[in-house]
Recover the amino acids of this structure.
């Protein structure tokens, strides 16, 4: 039987980033059920760094991650993972509190209707107020994920693909993890970084689920009758019904900002959700939609309070939760991994996250007092 100090279940950005942080100190194995890591949520993310995304409870992780994503250490990557984009939050209601969902710590600037029309030509007249979030940037998701996997391996971490966990038993101070192919692994700590499958993995280990709920989100790439829009800022409805951004000279990425309840699965876009996305886009701007160039869907998984879950289970020794990252798992990955690693290894936190209280994300918050 193979023996490791830590076994991480899940090879997406969560498992890869945490693995890269702990492999320097403990012999670590990352097991991935699919043919290669990151096939599901990570591989389908249209990620951007948007400091306001996720609300006040998530913003500290996003803020702390920014400099790492922009200027990573030389031993991690040769260049940064962010490309400036900018975002514009738009509103139809005209209410004074329309942008109250943007955390106070996030820098935004009021935008006049004339400035909005200059930035987004053809925007519908019903969008009566707007705020600019200039710090928004695209994230090179594939590059970031690959860099974490490289660092994990450089630090002695081992990756096994096509390695689906079917059971885990805690006995005698260690875990015995059984794989679908019959293989077994022993480890002191079992990390649940399985994304949409997080609650299922917990149940396979005899751990009570937290209620990590997968939600399907649809993305559509449209070819439109307007050119020169590749660097169009991210346009976000403050009411939460859509966001879109330029992708090519005549292409946009649009999402209806949907969160459709789903079981863990290989998510696929539904025709009705594609139609909703197109309808909302056509209500936002007067650009003719010429074709659907492609569409895809991914799962975003949330804990009941929509904050991530980092920490040891309160009832089962050696079981560590690293799940519930919703749609902000990419933009918070550097800070989340360093914060969780400090808890897991019982070490002083990295300076990047020294001012963030890990108790806010502890699974203990879901336990009866």
């Amino acid at each position: 039987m193979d023996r490791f100090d830590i076994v991480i279940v899940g090879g997406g950005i969560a498992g890869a980033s945490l693995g890269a942080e702990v492999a320097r100190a403990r012999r670590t194995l990352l097991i991935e059920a699919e043919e290669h890591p990151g096939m599901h949520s990570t591989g389908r993310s249209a990620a951007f760094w948007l400091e306001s995304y996720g609300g006040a409870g998530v913003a500290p992780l996003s803020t702390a991650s920014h400099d790492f994503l922009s200027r990573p250490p030389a031993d991690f990557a040769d260049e940064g993972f962010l490309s400036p984009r900018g975002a514009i939050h738009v509103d139809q209601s005209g209410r004074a509190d329309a942008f109250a969902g943007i955390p106070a710590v996030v820098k935004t600037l009021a935008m006049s209707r004339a400035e909005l029309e200059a930035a987004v030509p053809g925007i519908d007249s019903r969008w009566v107020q707007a705020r600019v979030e200039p710090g928004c940037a695209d994230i090179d998701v594939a590059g970031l994920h690959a860099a974490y996997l490289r660092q994990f391996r450089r630090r002695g971490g081992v990756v096994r693909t096509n390695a689906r966990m079917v059971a885990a038993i805690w006995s005698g101070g260690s875990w015995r993890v059984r794989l679908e192919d019959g293989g077994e692994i022993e480890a002191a700590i079992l990390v649940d970084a399985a994304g949409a499958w997080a609650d299922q993995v917990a149940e396979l280990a005899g751990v009570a689920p937290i209620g990590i709920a997968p939600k399907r989100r649809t993305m559509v790439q449209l070819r439109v009758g307007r050119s020169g829009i590749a660097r169009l800022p991210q346009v976000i409805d403050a009411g939460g019904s859509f966001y879109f951004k330029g992708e090519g000279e005549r292409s946009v990425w649009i999402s209806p900002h949907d969160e459709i309840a789903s079981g863990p699965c290989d998510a696929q876009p539904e025709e009705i959700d594609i139609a909703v996305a197109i309808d909302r886009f056509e209500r936002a701007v007067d650009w003719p939609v010429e074709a659907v160039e492609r569409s895809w869907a991914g799962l975003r998984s949330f804990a009941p309070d929509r904050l991530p879950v980092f920490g040891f289970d309160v009832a089962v020794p050696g079981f560590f939760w690293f799940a519930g990252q919703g749609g902000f798992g990419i933009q918070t990955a550097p800070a989340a991994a360093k914060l969780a690693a400090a808890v897991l290894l019982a070490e002083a936190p990295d300076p990047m996250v020294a001012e963030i209280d890990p108790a806010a994300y502890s699974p203990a918050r879901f336990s009866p007092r």
Q: What stands out?
A: The mean pLDDT is 95. The CA atoms of residues 124 and 212 lie 38 Å apart. Residues 141-154 form the longest helix (14 residues).
